[in-house]
Amino acid sequence: MALGGGVPVSSWTALWLGPGPLSAGQWLALFTHFTVLSLLAVGGAITTVPSMHRFLVSQQGWLSDAQFTASVAIAQAAPGPNVLFVAVMGYNVGGLAGVAATLLGTLAPSTALTLLVTRWGSRRSQASGVRAFTAGLAPLTIGLMLATSWILLEPTRAHPIAPLLVAGTLWVMLRTRLSPLWALAAGALVGVLGWV
Hints:
Mean pLDDT: 83
Strand order of the largest sheet: 1-2
């Protein structure tokens, strides 16, 4: 049987539910995990990548290391919001239903919390506790970004050029005013040449 211009029903099912449909408990676990991560995402959703990796790759086995890294890389290279990688992961796990589960889990709680805290914080911006909390978030965010980098480097860590490329990128970002696009272009060139 076919729907929508001759596309087989099984293709529609794969589009909506992904390669291997999840059970109700697995859908709930996917949504709940991304909801909790949303509330812990200090510095943006990208800082929770290590926990996403642990859940999706190590615990559930829904994605391989390569699929996980590719999901993040593809979404980060595409124009648009930084959080798009969550949608790509959701799609790889559970089709369009996975996109809904991961995006709603990621966006709804953090958006509601941000609106509430922003209103509360704007009235108390000069309070010493609010200033201390804000200052304390910077090192936390840097640590989470380093953990994310370590996870994303996993598939290429054995190649000697990969850590050099990371160190060079870090040096350029800290010491110059060059656009990060140059580091992205260097990484793309290394990949195209097959050096990593």
